[in-house]
Structures are given as structure tokens and as C-alpha cells.
Amino acid sequence: MHCPFCRHADSRVVDSRTSDDGASIRRRRQCPECNRRFTTVETASLSVVKRSGVTEPFSREKVVNGVRKACQGRPVSDDDLALLAQRVEETIRASGTAELDAYEIGLTILGPLRELDEVAYLRFASVYQAFNSLEDFEAAITVLRAERDVASSSDPAGPGDDEARSEQ
């Protein structure tokens, strides 16, 4: 690490701390030449390999912009989109892979988006998974209904039991 003051080619780490979200490390450094101190922030870089073969840095903003189109007219806030992008990045970082295909990122988006808004999920999936017919939509809707039925049947109270309890 070059000193930003005298451009000396070396520096000594005085202190290291993780940032609030744990995704980066803040290091306090000192130059052995001019003895001035400076701070660096280090993050592990994630790269996205596009279909064309071009590699670019991962961007939460691109995730948000892609999902925002699917969420137009839906009750989804900008905060919801930011949290979704954060979950996607955390999932990607947890995989331990520094370079991912754009397609894999899209697959990673589908799960959190389904939880956020089913209609937006269907819109995104229809483009992303190249739905070609009504049957593709029907199959995706059937899967969503089946998952919802499984989730509601695993609820210990069961559907409609809240009303029965309130009458007692």
C-alpha cells in the first residue's frame, strides 16, 4: 500500500477492525518514511461474468434496478429492494466464489423476490427463465400455490384457527 502523502511503497498496519456490516475491514496504517497515518478500507471483490464473457464488479444497484422493473405497481418500497439486494450479496459472498455468472445471480434473486412479492417474482421469472407460453406461467403459479399450501399446513395454528381462538 503506497502512502498517499509521500508515495512511499510500504506502510505498517497499526490497527484493524471490521466494519459494521462485517463486509469490509478498516485498517489504520502508518508510513515508515514520513510517519503519517492514513486509513484504508478493504473488501473482497465479487466479479460477474456476463453472457458475452465480459467481467465486471458486482453491483447491488444493478440488482435493485433489475428487480425494480418487476416490482412496478406493486407494494414494494425502495428499502425492501435494498434489503433484497443485500440478501443477494450476502448469499453470493457466503458461497465463497469470487466470480459468478450473471445467470447464477439471477437464480439467487428469485428466492428472496418470491418471499417479497409473488407477482413481482412471476414477472422476473417470466423474463429470466424465458417463459414461452401460458403453460409456463401456470406451472410457476402451481408451484407457488403448492409451496404456500405446505407453509400454511405446517403452521401449528392452522388456517382459520385464529378466529376459533378469538371466539373462545
Strand order of the largest sheet: 1-2-3
Largest beta-sheet details:
3 strands, antiparallel
Q: Output the helix-strand order.
A: EEEEEHHEHHHH
N-end to C-end Cα span: 70 Å
Provide tags for this entry.
168 residues; alpha+beta
What does this 3D model show about the protein?
The protein is an alpha+beta fold and 168 residues long. Helices cover 48% and strands 18% of the residues. The strands form 2 sheets. Strands 1-2-3 form a 3-stranded antiparallel sheet, with no helix packed on it. A 3-stranded mixed sheet has the order 5-4-6. A hairpin with a 5-residue loop joins strand 1 (12-18) and strand 2. The longest helix has 20 residues, at 134-153. Residues 159-168 have low confidence and may be disordered.
